[in-house]
Amino acid sequence: MKNLILPTLGGLLMLAVPAKADMAAAEALIAKHSQLPTFEAPGPAFDAKACMKDKKMFVIPLTNANPFNAAISQGFVDAAAMVGFELRDWETQMDPAGWIQGINTATAEGFDLIDLQGGLPPEFLVPQITEARTAGVKVTATHNWDATTQTVPDFMDGAANTDYVTVGEIIAAWAMVKTGGKVNAIVLGPDEITPTAPLRDAIIGYLKDNCPDCKTQYINVPVNDWATKTQPAVQNALLADPTINYVLPVYDSMSQFIVPAIQIAGSSAKIVSYNGTPFVLDMMRDGDIVEMNVGESLGWVGMAGTDANMRLLCGLDPVTKLNTPAYIFSDENVATAGNPATFNDGYGDVHRAGFAKLWGVE
């Protein structure tokens, strides 16, 4: 609360004046991430081809069944082709047994580095990771932890992390601006996925710190329960409180179960989320419930993860944060994502030339 001092006959009177939402800062954040991404090198240029001449990399995604993970893996594959080294993208179906088999295969076949990609929880694989590292294999992760609020465990050799906090703040700022500082939102996420905590906390924390009249409630829906529990949870919340104006799932794939809940409840609530998943961008283009989506070029993510891994293998200064900018899609620009949308259209392609120059393979 801010205090206003007014003169009175008997001296001074302190009147409490309610704090106001910091709308200018929210608008500035939205404006910054509405600009087409530009390339900023994550580190000094180096001769990647010479460095990687006799080295090979092994990528284990959370699951190949998720187009999100598949698109990041393709970025790794493209980067390896540009530089000219061996890279294997391991097939998994969100199965710990498959992850373990991948680590064991990479170790047995003499790969130099294993990357656990796109949300795969390394804490479930500590014995296998330790065995691989003992055998001389470096183990890293790409797009798993937040770059500022989460610590990479000591049992890992490194990680290229994502700025999840900024993503969460963009989502919160958008809802705040659109409602004039009167957000009443449901926030949803699966607590078992590593990036959920920083995304969830950033959304809720930003509104708490910058919007005194905003309200949130959080619902945990594990990934395996999305198809059965997301819709009833959202529908019940909307029916209990018809003033809810935003539903903010931390991962946009939940939207397919949220839209029916909004429709059945007769609510005017909008969806704002993160990941730039193509089918959700298609929903935005063709409907009016998905209002905004924060995305990032996943081909760029894969190349940036490759860059960090090559630097580690080459003994260069480590890169711990992916240089992939968060980018806002809304009705104004969603057409640039393609029809149907893809994970890479709409962002431009400055990263390809940027990395080629950085690695000396122009």
TrEMBL record:
Which controlled-vocabulary keywords does the entry list? Signal
Ranges for domain Periplasmic binding protein come to 59-313
Its localization reads: Cell envelope
As given in the record, the signal peptide range reads 1-21
Chief place where the protein resides: other
* Protein's UniProt keywords contain Signal: yes
In Pfam terms, one family for this protein is: Peripla_BP_4
Q: Which InterPro entries match?
A: Peripla_BP_I, SBP_2_dom
Q: State the family it belongs to.
A: Belongs to the bacterial solute-binding protein 2 family.
Name by which UniProt lists this protein? Sugar ABC transporter substrate-binding protein
Organism from which the protein derives = Hoeflea alexandrii
Provide the organism lineage as a comma list. Answer: Bacteria, Pseudomonadati, Pseudomonadota, Alphaproteobacteria, Hyphomicrobiales
